[in-house]
Amino acid sequence: MRPVAIFRFSPTEGPGHFGEWLDRHGVPRQLVALDQGEAVPDDARAFAGIGMMGGPMSANDDLAWNAPLLSLLRQAVADDIPVIGHCLGGQLFAKALGASVSPTAIPEIGWGEVTVPDRAASAWFGGRDVFTTFQWHYDIFALPPGAARVLTNAFNPQQGYALGKHLGFQCHIEMTREMVETWTRGGAGELPSQSNGATQSRDDIFRDLDARLAALSEVADDVYARWATGFVR
Predict the structure, then answer these.
(1) Is 94 a residue whose pLDDT tops 90?
(2) How far apart are CA 12 and CA 10, in angstroms?
(3) How far apart are CA 176 and CA 16, in angstroms?
(4) DSSP secondary structure letter of residue 145
(5) Sheet holding 166-169: strands in order across?
(6) What predicted TM-score, i.e. pTM, was given to this entire model?
């Protein structure tokens, strides 16, 4: 089987639970560490699927890897190779599909509820119609042409979209305890002393952390299992 390509944009935002799921199911994976200057592969057909993680930059930043990655994503869609993007990855994929990415009026940091808008979308989430996920973003994507909204919330309505076998998320379903600890340590200056609207304090982020992560990982397992049915072998 061909590997799943995992694009990393920051050393603190690696594969997380996504990589753990692939390993647990015997799916080979190839990390493309763009944060270390690795080149974007030029042929999407070398991979069974393409996954993209988060990062602190904007999808609109003029970075050396941006244009070739967007081109690779468009090629993957044309060749029916499944793509999944988490947060920045979802923004980049939306941009590759022709949607805009722009600053949001309501940044989200910490735990928050998202809603699945209809029965068709709930198939991606094991039949769930609502769950609690993790957020850390200042930009938001518009819904790409032809895509269906699969997640929404009261702060930023575009939380997830599907285009056939492809998925893009604004939220982070791939979280692990290590990632939460690293992000809150490195981004301590972004956290309020008391939770305020869509932005949580460190104390509230860590409240019931292991139980929240376990529940989110169950959601992610269902998402990844359905997404993997589209692999090109």
Answers:
(1) yes
(2) 5
(3) 6
(4) T
(5) 29-33, 4-8, 49-52, 83-86, 166-169, 160-163, 148-151
(6) 0.97
Tokens 């080979």, residue located: 28
Provide the residue type at 61 as one letter.
D
CATH number at residue 78: 3.40.50.880
Q: Is residue 123 part of a domain?
A: yes
User: Domain span at residue 200?
Assistant: 4-228
168 domain residue, yes or no: yes
Asked if residue 169 belongs to a domain, the reply is: yes
C-alpha span between 229 and 218 (Å, rounded): 17
> Domain count of the chain?
1
- Give, to the nearest 10 degrees, the angle between helix 88-96 and helix 66-78: 70
Helices (H), 80-188: 88-96, 119-122, 177-186
Query: Average pLDDT over the chain, rounded to whole?
Result: 97
**CA neighbor of 136 nearest in space, from 175, 97, 166:** 175
Q: Is residue 233 part of a domain?
A: no
11's enclosing H/E stretch is none
